[in-house]
Specification:
heterodimer, A: 169 residues, Alpha-Beta Plaits, four-stranded antiparallel sheet, 4 helices, 44% helix, B: Formate dehydrogenase/DMSO reductase fold, two-stranded antiparallel ribbon, 17 helices
């Protein structure tokens, strides 16, 4: 049977935390619960599972790509037009270092931003079950469960003081 | 003390998005005037392209004038934006919250404006592409990476891209707030920009890491950019430019002018956007204290430049310094620059009452930047004036009306872009303000209640 997503809306963090505890107590695993808030809360406020990510890999990968591109551009252009100036070597290290530094940093920064988007799972095709009051300070608790457990989830959400419940099939 | 006033999330949304959803009359009037000035600026740019650099006051041997001065000036202004934002984020300074977005945005617009200056100065801007980008495979024409004129665009494009991405990343949660309040086509546009952001713990955690990680990555770029700009001068053989201390001297000068510009911007934002609940005396006081340290650091390097130049007692150096310090009009400009950017501000910033006065701080920050513009002019033009040793050709330089319009137009352009940005996006990060509000608590100690921050 298909899963459904149910959102319970809470006016304050205490009730939202209580809802999370109740849901877990009623057999809904932490991985199937999500929290939507309009601003960051300290980690663990709602007893959510710790977010995992691999963001730190991205800047390193970007830096390597940036550095390689810098080498390609600086070495390639100097070798393609080997004009000796003032008896200096064709491959001049100090200017290559400057350009390599900038390309490396640029690669790392672009890759970091790509990593942030990727690990945040955005852009998404649809917003899914959501309530606009969340960005006004309300807290949304989302339960992902099989349709036959939908009623139980809804009851748990209401019992913890949800001011509104929304369901997405 | 910080966070004296408690505001709810809904109130933060309402107050900080007021201009986004409602167009005030003052905004229309100021943007119209600035738009007109920008049109004059663009027309003058067109005229300059059509008629050539003969319209400027440049003449042999003074080949760099107001346009390059303006380039250095705006690159300098752009520096403090991301620098201050990055340092305050890395140090988790709570007073950063209302100022980071505006500072970062100013960086982006100042850099874009700065980039226009060498393009105009080139006379034939389309040829710049040959110097910068390795694309002309058919004719085998390549950029010369040994030239500082290639280092500059590399550094500035890196900084501009990084700063824009920095601003964009922190804007994503705020796009979602606007999306949730907008209707019609606006909802569609902000929805697309928000990329269906929902505010999950994972997304907030990454947003927090992004602030720290991008700050750590952008800070070295920030230092490199103005160092590379200073090497445009430093690697040349022109007396007065061939100075080893130029890189740190330029960087710290950029910080001085940039932080002053952030101060000007914060005070204008408070006044125009009615942000009294968010920008307080404590914020400008903190910036004032930071500026005292920066100004003294800058002053140290400024004197190093003079002392070591005169210590050598080489005739070319002494001639150049004689021109700078003792020959009008440079001597007058030098005096003005020194008084405006160091003597007046540093003396006044020592007083708490001055640091907490919006009026005083506004005018002092303007004075600093007038002084810093003059500083760049004095660094650039006098060393070029007595260049030709064999012909004894002493040049003079006087900016033409075209250059004056262009320089004036850049101020209008940056102000115009900032106001346009402020119309469509919040100038203070909503989510950062909300987070700051949540973490504040009042602790009672004896007879007083002390605001305290709760932080992991």
């Amino acid at each position: 049977m298909a899963n459904q997503r149910i959102l319970g809306l809470y006016p304050d963090p205490d009730k939202a935390a209580e809802a999370m505890n109740r849901l877990k107590h009623n057999g809904f695993p932490a991985e199937d619960l999500d929290i939507y808030t309009g601003s960051p809360f300290p980690e663990g406020t709602f007893g959510e599972h710790e977010p995992q990510h691999r963001l730190y890999v991205f800047p390193f990968a970007g830096a390597v790509i940036g550095f390689s591109l810098a080498m390609l551009v600086t070495i390639g252009t100097q070798i393609s037009y080997p004009l000796i100036t003032g008896g200096k070597p064709i491959l001049s290290i100090p200017p290559m270092t400057i350009i390599a530094y900038e390309f490396t940093m640029l690669g790392a920064i672009i890759a970091t931003v790509v990593g942030i988007l990727f690990e945040s799972r955005i852009p998404r095709r649809t917003l899914g079950v959501y309530d606009e009051r969340i960005t006004d300070g309300f807290i949304g608790i989302v339960v992902s469960c099989p349709a036959e457990r939908g009623r139980a989830a809804e009851q748990s959400l209401r019992a913890s003081g949800a001011v509104d419940i929304k369901t997405e099939a | 003390m910080y966070y004296r006033r408690t505001v709810s999330d809904a109130q933060i949304n309402r107050e900080l998005l007021d201009v986004v959803f409602r167009t005030p009359v003052w905004w229309v009037v100021i943007v119209s005037i600035l738009g007109l000035l920008v049109a004059v600026f663009m027309s003058t740019f067109g005229l300059l392209m059509n008629q050539g650099l003969g319209l400027t006051g440049l003449n042999r041997p003074v080949f760099w004038g107001f346009l390059i001065t303006n380039f250095i000036f705006w690159v300098g202004i752009s520096h403090a934006g991301v620098m201050i934002s990055a340092i305050l984020r890395l140090s988790q300074a709570e007073w950063r919250r209302p100022m980071v977005r505006a500072a970062e945005t100013m960086t982006v617009f100042s850099l874009m404006t700065a980039l226009l200056m060498p393009v105009m100065h080139a006379g034939r801007p389309w040829r710049i592409f040959y110097w910068v980008f390795p694309y002309d495979f058919a004719r085998g024409i390549w950029p010369d990476v040994r030239s500082p004129l290639v280092w500059d665009p590399t550094a500035i494009i890196t900084y501009l891209t990084s700063s824009s991405l920095f601003v964009f990343t922190a804007l994503i949660p705020d796009f979602a707030v606007i999306r949730d309040r907008a209707t019609g086509w606006r909802k569609a546009i902000y929805g697309a920009l928000a990329m269906n952001w929902r505010g999950t713990p994972q997304q907030w955690k990454l947003q927090g890491i992004a602030g720290i990680l991008l700050s750590a990555l952008i800070l070295p770029v920030f230092v490199s950019v103005h160092s590379i700009v200073s090497w445009d001068f430093g690697v040349s053989l022109v007396p007065g430019w061939h100075v080893s201390v130029f890189a740190p001297y330029f960087v710290i000068g950029a910080v001085l002018s940039g932080v002053s510009a952030v101060l000007t911007l914060m005070i204008l934002m408070r006044f125009l956007f009615k942000l009294q609940n968010y920008i307080w005396e404590e914020h400008i006081d903190a910036l004032g204290r930071l500026l005292i340290v920066v100004a003294i650091g800058w002053h140290f390097l400024f004197w190093l430049d003079i002392v070591f130049a005169l210590w050598t007692a080489e005739s070319v150096e002494t001639t150049y310094w004689q021109l700078r310090l003792l020959t009008p009009p440079w001597s007058w400009l030098f005096l003005l620059f020194y008084v405006f950017s160091f003597v007046i501000p540093t003396s006044l910033w020592l007083f708490r009452k001055v640091r907490r006065s919006f009026v005083w701080m506004f005018w002092i920050s303007i004075l600093v930047n007038i002084g810093m513009f003059l500083e760049r002019l004095i660094i650039i033009v006098p060393p070029l004036m007595n260049k030709d040793a064999f012909t004894f050709q002493f040049g003079t330089y006087r900016p033409s009306i075209v250059e004056l319009i262009i320089v004036g137009g850049t101020f209008a352009l940056v102000a115009f872009l900032l106001l346009m940005f402020g119309k469509f996006f919040p100038l203070i990060p909503l989510w950062e303000e909300k987070e700051g509000q949540r973490l504040v608590e009042t602790v009672k100690v004896g007879n007083v209640e002390v605001p305290a921050m709760i932080k992991e």
